UniProtKB/TrEMBL annotation:
The keyword Endoplasmic reticulum does not apply. This is TetR family transcriptional regulator. The keyword Cell division does not apply. PANTHER family: HTH-TYPE TRANSCRIPTIONAL REGULATOR PKSA, HTH-TYPE TRANSCRIPTIONAL REGULATOR RUTR. Keywords: DNA-binding. The lineage of its organism: Bacteria, Bacillati, Actinomycetota, Actinomycetes, Pseudonocardiales. Residues 29-48 bind DNA. Residues 6-66 form the HTH tetR-type domain.
Amino acid sequence: MSARTTATKQKLFDAALKLVGERGAASVTVDEIAAEAGVAKGTIYYNFASKDALVEALLHHGVEILAGRLRSAESAESSEDSLEALVDQMLGFWAEYPAFGQLLVSELWRTPGQWHGTLSLLRDDIVSIVRGQMKRLADAGRLPEGVEVGTASAALFGTLLVIALDWQVFQPERSRAEVRESVMLLVRGLGQARRPGPADG
């Protein structure tokens, strides 16, 4: 793929991401994507068979970027550092691509939805990375008794998505470090949850 073709596809991705994130995939037209990208309508059909193919490629593209960043957190030595790096990378991604977060929220839990199947598979890719981090915490005895790794993984993913969107929409004055530390305080609190003793009965 030539540099020019790559640059053109990136412009189309950026335009589609902005519009789809704001209004949902179904309500955005090819003409609008072309106008936002500053290219001719035919350019979209030259690079993608249809608007649906463009959105499909966009979803995969965004998740690949996010997955790559989350995997970079796996190199940390301790489970605590690794989890903090994962939280930081995810918050950083949502800060850089807020429209993608809006797209996930608007399309992932919409039933029925045209992109539900694709997004479910992509969600599984991300959650599997988070699951690896939760497994490290579980192996270190950091998860509360009775909490399953799978449940904790889905909960952390959903929590980070909602917190990131809340941050971007309602609390943009907060720094990424502040939001990250708030999440880590919550996670540490769960990890140190006291097991009920005889006096609690």
